[in-house]
């Protein structure tokens, strides 16, 4: 199926080559297998977690560290991966965590920043989001009566209640990949790197890979890049131009700056807060707060999210920490520079700090009214949340963009499904949206 | 450039001396022949950077000689003994000493006594061009301002900067609080200073936030200027190191390329941090050589920084002593 012998095969016999093995990749492959298509999955790391993977997982950074905020907040991961922002190896980031499932909000899909905007609405992504929810057991929206009562009260205080499915234990994709391999249509090539690309017109017609077993040539039908918000940019450029490491700069890098911003002393609604902990323990639901969509749209505030975390272990006390995930708007000075090892130059600008302060001013007043006094921290420390996004934004498919189908500009058979294509990133954990993009792309490729 | 004719005695020959002190003296125009090194023995090999410099192993070998400046960079255990010897032997010299580190109260008394002499500290943080600029911006700020100094390690460095910002005997803002890896100074007039002391130079940075600006230094050295006004950085060219905020040059120091190159690669924040220290020392030594208004950090202030650091390490709060 994969050895190139110089013969041009009929399209139907050529595999789709998928780079990466995380959630988006798995959704693409799952859809293609269902359509009876052969697939080759190329993974840069190994099939098991190892120190080589830990080294590959490090990201070169210039300004703020590109590392996970999750570790700073107690995420349990293998010791070798302390502080790394992603996982290179079979299963992708799922091997570190896949904890929080929340789709981007409608306002995120609607919002426009300069020339950036999602080319489709949340409604158009809904079927893919539902398919992913079904695949990973994400329950449908809350039917919890206590929570619904509370939602009304929260909305009366001009806040929005956000529900997040927190999967525990997290899904590790290894079993799913083994199952897909058993279909006979999927071939996984681990510890493999792209070393050569040949084009015919605007199509990639041959890929050369270096693997532990030697060089491998593949004649692809389509190529899908689904290896995260950083590496996808470098690989897409490599596939488009046939080379990498040219110092090209891709702006608009975004993350979700994350940090402890204050303390809440709950004087009211303590039974509700205790109920939240029950929901978290029994139904794997996390609750967070945001400002109303029409307000943030009207006032141009980011769609930030505030989580309440018990200062004690079980939430029985009155002290709660307020932790935020900020929406960061795309900025030219936050970028990825390609090279032998791509480098991320990222910082949190004054504009983002100011936006956070506007949000906190409103949030603290409203949370105080709802639950009790809020004390904002004086020296807020923000760090990356390991949600890199935005350097290959979806749009009209013009230079350095991908089109609404996910096709990389200038290449008719190269597609990207990762957070790199987010034109606007909101503050939702990106996994669900990324997986839905993979599902949507599989439907597109399966029809073709 | 006119060569300064001062004679300098350096006590110690370890990293601090060959990495910073001697190169900074040479870059400032002093000649190797003007420098004498006093070290305990000649058994250990001298660093190649110190070749051509006269070496002696005891103060007695310098009987009848005159030195204009002494610089004490010996190890903590010997530092006070050596300094007392230098002050006694060369009463008219200008004495510099590294920040003393001690835990014995008797040593504190000796150090405080020395502080009453004509002595300066070799503490370099208040001299570093980036820190000096941030400190000046902080000092001049009329309203809320927060300066963060992250992951540089040693607390006495921070205390020297804090003392520089707020003045030696400022009646306000002197309370320091230590908690969870952080030392913070009590805000006064809306100002605060935070020092995250866990040393991790790859993550080290400075950030100053006021009501109308954000300025950050990630220890970048660029080949040419850019125009991001929120970033403080350096441009190193053949023969000059400039410090800039966005497109605005804050200061420039002519330095021979050979010295600049000795701190490469600049992708490592530790190297850039050391370049900043070096530039600060060069400026100081040039000012002294020119007979201008050199303003080294006070030795007595360094002793008090050490005492404050000791107090903070045994408790959560201390005044800036």
Report on this model:
The complex is a heterodimer of chains A (448) and B (321). By secondary structure, chain A is of the alpha/beta class. Chain A has one domain: FAD/NAD(P)-binding domain. In chain A, 29% of the residues lie in helices and 20% in strands. Chain A is built from 11 helices and 19 strands. Chain A has helices spanning 23-34, 51-57, 106-110, 122-136, 145-156, 174-181, 231-241, 270-283, 293-299, 350-370, 431-447; strands at 16-19, 39-42, 60-61, 100-101, 160-166, 186-189, 193-200, 203-211, 214-218, 223-225, 249-251, 258-265, 285-290, 305-310, 319-325, 335-337, 343-345, 374-376, 414-416. In chain A, strands 4-5-13-14-15-12-18 form a 7-stranded antiparallel β-sheet. Chain A has a 5-stranded parallel β-sheet with strand order 6-2-1-10-19, sandwiched between helices. In chain A, strands 3-17-16-11 form a 4-stranded mixed β-sheet, with no helix packed on it. In chain A, strand 14 (305-310) and strand 15 (319-325) form a beta hairpin. In chain A, helix 1 (23-34) packs parallel to helix 11 (431-447) and helix 4 (122-136) packs across helix 11 (431-447). Chain A is globular. Chain A starts with 15 loop residues before the first strand and ends with a helix. In chain A, 48% of the residues are buried. By secondary structure, chain B is of the alpha/beta class. Chain B has 2 domains: 8-98, NAD(P)-binding Rossmann-like Domain (Rossmann fold); 125-289, no CATH class. Chain B is built from 8 helices and 16 strands. In chain B, the strands form 2 sheets. In chain B, strands 15-14-13-12-11-7-10-9-8-16 form a 10-stranded mixed β-sheet, covered by helices on one side. In chain B, strands 3-2-1-4-5-6 form a 6-stranded parallel β-sheet. In chain B, helix 4 packs across helix 5 (155-166). The termini of chain B are far apart. The relative contact order of chain B is 0.15. The mean pLDDT of chain B is 89. The interface between A and B is medium-sized, with 11 and 19 residues.
């Amino acid at each position: 199926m994969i050895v190139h012998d110089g013969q041009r095969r009929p399209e139907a016999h050529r595999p789709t080559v998928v780079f990466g093995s995380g959630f988006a990749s798995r959704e693409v492959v799952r859809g293609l297998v269902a359509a009876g298509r052969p697939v080759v999955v190329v993974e840069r790391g190994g099939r098991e977690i190892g120190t080589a993977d830990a080294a590959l997982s490090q990201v070169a950074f210039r300004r703020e560290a590109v590392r996970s905020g999750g570790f700073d907040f107690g995420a349990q991961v293998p010791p070798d991966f302390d502080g790394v922002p992603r996982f290179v190896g079979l299963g992708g980031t799922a091997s570190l965590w896949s904890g929080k499932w929340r789709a981007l909000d409608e306002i995120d899909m609607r919002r426009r920043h300069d020339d950036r905007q999602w080319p489709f609405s949340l409604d158009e992504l809904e079927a893919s989001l539902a398919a992913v929810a079904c695949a990973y057991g994400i329950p449908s929206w809350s039917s919890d009566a206590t929570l619904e009562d509370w939602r009304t009260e929260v909305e009366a205080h001009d806040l929005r209640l956000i529900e997040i499915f927190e999967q525990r234990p997290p899904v590790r994709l290894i079993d799913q990949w083994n199952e897909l391999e058993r279909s006979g249509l999927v071939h996984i090539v681990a510890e493999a790197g792209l070393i050569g690309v040949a084009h015919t017109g605007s199509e990639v017609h041959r890929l050369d890979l270096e693997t532990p077993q030697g060089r491998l040539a593949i004649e692809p039908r389509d190529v899908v890049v689904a290896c995260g918000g950083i590496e996808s940019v470098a690989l897409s450029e490599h596939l488009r131009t046939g080379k990498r490491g040219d110092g090209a700069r891709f702006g608009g890098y975004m993350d979700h700056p994350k940090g402890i911003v204050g303390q809440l002393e709950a004087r009211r609604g303590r039974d509700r807060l205790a109920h939240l902990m029950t929901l978290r323990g029994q139904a794997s639901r996390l609750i967070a707060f945001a400002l109303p969509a029409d307000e943030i749209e009207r006032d141009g505030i980011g769609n930030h999210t505030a989580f309440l975390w018990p200062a004690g272990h079980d939430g029985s006390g009155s002290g709660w920490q307020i932790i935020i995930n900020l929406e960061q708007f795309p900025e030219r000075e936050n970028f990825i520079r390609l090279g032998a090892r791509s480098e991320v130059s990222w910082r949190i600008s004054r504009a983002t700090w100011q936006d956070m302060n506007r949000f906190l001013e409103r949030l603290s007043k409203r949370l105080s009214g709802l639950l009790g006094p809020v004390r904002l921290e004086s020296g807020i420390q923000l760090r990356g949340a390991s949600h890199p996004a935005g350097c290959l934004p979806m749009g009209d498919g013009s230079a350095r963009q991908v089109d609404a189908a996910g096709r990389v500009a200038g290449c008719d058979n190269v597609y990207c499904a990762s957070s790199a294509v987010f034109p606007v990133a909101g503050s939702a954990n990106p996994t669900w949206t990324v997986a839905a993009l993979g599902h949507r792309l599989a439907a597109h490729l399966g029809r073709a | 450039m006119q060569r300064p004719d001062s004679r300098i005695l350096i006590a110690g020959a370890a990293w601090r001396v060959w990495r910073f002190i001697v190169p900074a003296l040479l870059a400032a125009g002093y000649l190797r022949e003007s420098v004498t090194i006093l070290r305990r023995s000649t058994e250990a090999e001298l660093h190649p950077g110190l070749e051509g410099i006269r070496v002696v192993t005891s103060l007695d070998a310098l009987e009848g000689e005159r030195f204009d400046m002494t610089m004490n960079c010996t190890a903590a255990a010997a530092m006070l003994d050596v300094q007392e010897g230098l002050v006694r032997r060369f009463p008219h010299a200008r004495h510099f000493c590294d920040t003393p580190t001690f835990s014995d109260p008797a040593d504190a008394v000796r150090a405080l006594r020395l502080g009453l002499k004509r002595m300066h500290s070799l503490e370099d943080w208040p001299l570093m061009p980036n820190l000096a600029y941030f400190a000046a911006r902080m000092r001049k700020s009329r309203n809320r301002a927060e300066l963060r100094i992250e992951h540089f390690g040693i607390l006495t460095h921070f205390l020297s900067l804090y003392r520089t910002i707020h003045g030696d005997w400022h009646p306000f803002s002197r309370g320091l609080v230590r908690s969870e890896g952080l030392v913070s100074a009590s805000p006064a007039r809306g100002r605060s200073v935070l020092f995250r002391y866990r040393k991790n130079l790859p993550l080290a940075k400075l950030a100053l936030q006021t009501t109308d600006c954000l300025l950050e230094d990630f220890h970048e050295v660029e080949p040419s200027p850019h125009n991001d006004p929120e970033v403080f950085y350096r441009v190193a060219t053949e023969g000059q190191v400039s410090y800039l905020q966005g497109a605005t040059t804050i200061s420039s120091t002519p330095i021979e390329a050979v010295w600049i190159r000795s701190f490469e690669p600049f992708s490592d924040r530790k190297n850039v941090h050391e370049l900043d220290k070096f530039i600060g020392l060069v400026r100081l030594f040039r000012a002294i050589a020119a007979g201008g208004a050199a303003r080294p950090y006070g030795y007595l202030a360094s002793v008090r920084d050490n005492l404050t650091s000791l107090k903070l390490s045994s408790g959560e709060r201390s005044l800036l002593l």
